[in-house]
Amino acid sequence: MANYHLDCSSGIAGDMFLGACLDLGLPLDVLADVVARLGLPGVAVESRKASRGGFVGTRFRVLVDGRPLEGPDPEEHGHQHGHGHEHGHHHGHSRGLTEIRELIGRSALSPAVKDRAVRLFQRLGEAEARAHGMPLEHVHFHEVGAIDSIVDLVGAAAAVEQLAPERLTCGPVNVGSGRVRMAHGEVPIPAPATAELLRGAPIFGGPGGELTTPTGAVLLAELVTDYVDLPAMILEGTGYGLGKKDLPHQANALRLLKGRAAAQRAEVGEVMVVEAEIDNLPGEGFGFLMERLLAAGALDVYFTPVQMKKNRPGTLVTLLCRRPQLAELAGVLLTESGSLGCRYHAAARLEAEREILEVQTAFGSVRVKRARLDGRPLAAAPEFEDCRRLALASGVPWRDVYRAALAAAGAPG
Question: What is the Cβ-side half-sphere exposure of residue 8, based on CA atoms within 13 angstroms?
């Protein structure tokens, strides 16, 4: 299995993602098979080599009755019409989430592709509902319900199944600038649903109109494991997926890099460090706060005694999390502590390789977390809750279960 990295310096849309996959070697037959299995009459797909800003890549398009739904590309018509993505395309009637689920459900696609495609539309529908303040069942996909975007998202699900990435990372995302016309009227960029889907992701703006679309944003929200500038890897290939527009200031291309993990002493990851000083919370409240933060996905939570203004004793609460969980965990921190604000910053972190083993002891099964550094054993730690549960059930000291788990894992006690 390979690692992949997305360079979204010119944004991302569904057709650009598929173009990049094709440029990396995904057979077009995979996407043609998606159309056939969905049972879409008169619909076909095509890919061809083209250039944007001096970069040669692959342009993916959906055809109905032999004609592209988006109209001709700039190099075919001599000049440019409209913008490059799917807002404003109202091919056919609008579709609700139930109708799209039924279309996917009755198709001949594999169960794994169906599940991923439905998750993509579900997530997109929830973002639209939040953005426009309406129940999910009232959301109708005027833009993304078009044939081209259904093919884009279901095709992306099939492409991911075919490429089988072990890890998909992404750098900062260019959302573009200005305003875009939608079924709801003219809105600022990023469009409301796009902004919802990119919560927790590093974004920036640039000239060129709408560069990241809702379909592109939902692919990031669903598929990306970490947002990093560029992970260490042994590069094996690069694919460029081209958008419709030919931008004057940069290449309108999504770059997808494929590689395998580079041998290194530790993996470089990113964590968000969130902090707040608190001086008006009872001791029991700190315990509950830690429980809530850990249950919500914090990687770690710890307390440090500090002196605050006017020499008041207080407690510095620090939590570590991944970027996509930042907003949710900061909300838990403020809600449970009563603090009026918190600070956060990104920090690089060297991470040892980790795996979870399940070992058998005389008391029962225990999960053991084992770490390696440069392929060598580093440390092992039995899961506390497993040891606690078995100690209570067996009537033995907790440390007996702990030591038995370490011995079963082959680690020194």
Answer: 33
Identify the sign of the CA torsion 334, 337, 339, 345. negative
Which three-class secondary structure string do you get for 315-356?
Answer: EEEEEEECHHHHHHHHHHHHHHHCCCCCEEEEEEEEECEEEE
- Six-digit token pair at 389? 């549960």
**Token couple for 380:** 């092992």
Q: Residue 403 CB: number of other CB atoms within 10 A?
A: 17
DSSP classification of residue 84: S
**Rounded to the nearest 5°, which phi and psi values hold at 13?**
-140, 165
CA 83 to chain centre: 25
Specify whether the CB–CB gap between 268 and 253 falls below 8 A. Answer: no
Angle at 153 between CA 249 and CA 108, to 5 degrees: 150
* Cβ 45 vs Cβ 159: under 8 Å: no
Cα gap 155→149, rounded to integer Å: 9
Residues 6+ apart with CB under 8 A from 384: none
Nearest to 177 by CA among 302, 274, 290, 83: 83
Span 207-240, pLDDT tens digits:
889 999 999 999 999 999 989 888 888 999 999 9
CA geometry: angle 106, 107, 111, nearest 5 deg: 95
**Digit-coded pLDDT (tens) for 339-371:** 999 999 999 877 777 778 889 999 999 999 888
Neighbours of 145 (CB within 10 A): 24
The torsion angles phi and psi of 68, rounded to 5 degrees, stand at -65, 135
Report how far Cα 135 is from the mean position of its chain's Cα atoms. 24
Q: Which whole number is the average pLDDT over 15-26?
A: 97
Among 394, 266, 255, 277, smallest CA distance to 340 is for: 277
Question: Which residue is it, tokens 């969980």?
Answer: 325
Compute, in degrees rounded to 10, the torsion defined by CA atoms 112, 116, 117, 123. 160
**Which of 198, 243, 233 minimizes the C-alpha distance to 217?**
198
In sequence order, which ranges of 69-179 are alpha helices (DSSP H)?
74-77, 97-105, 111-132, 147-163
Determine the Cα–Cα distance for residues 191 and 143; give it in Å rounded to an integer. Answer: 12
Q: Which of 50, 75, 59 is nearest to 19 (CA)?
A: 59
Three-class SS of residue 194? Answer: helix
- Taking CA atoms, 88 is separated from 65, 336, 393, in Å, by 20, 43, 63
The pLDDT, as a whole number, for residue 233 is: 86
Interhelix angle 111-132/97-105, rounded to 10 degrees, is 180
d(CA 120, CA 101): 11
